[in-house]
Known about the structure:
The protein has a two-stranded parallel sheet with strand order 1-2. The longest helix is centred in the C-terminal third of the chain and has 20 residues, at 44-63. It has three helices and two strands, in the order H-E-H-E-H. It is globular, with a radius of gyration of 12 Å. The chain has helices at 3-6, 24-32, 44-63; strands at 16-19, 37-40. The protein has one domain (3-63). With 64 residues, the protein is α+β, with helices and mostly antiparallel strands. Helix 2 links the parallel strand 1 and strand 2 (37-40).
Amino acid sequence: MGVIRALPGYGKTPVIYVTSHSDSENHSKSVLSGEDDLISKSGFQMELAVKAVTHLLKRKVTEH
């Protein structure tokens, strides 16, 4: 579990790594560490916005 999710009230907070590495090994490490997703810095702004909204909506759907 990541440090953010260990904080009170943040157990379900989506965590997205932003990295300059886009290879599958780094993606696997991020998923295995309990984070939700990984994006590369090259498409940062739009991709981060889309993924953040997607993860928030997924969590909202699964809560109801």
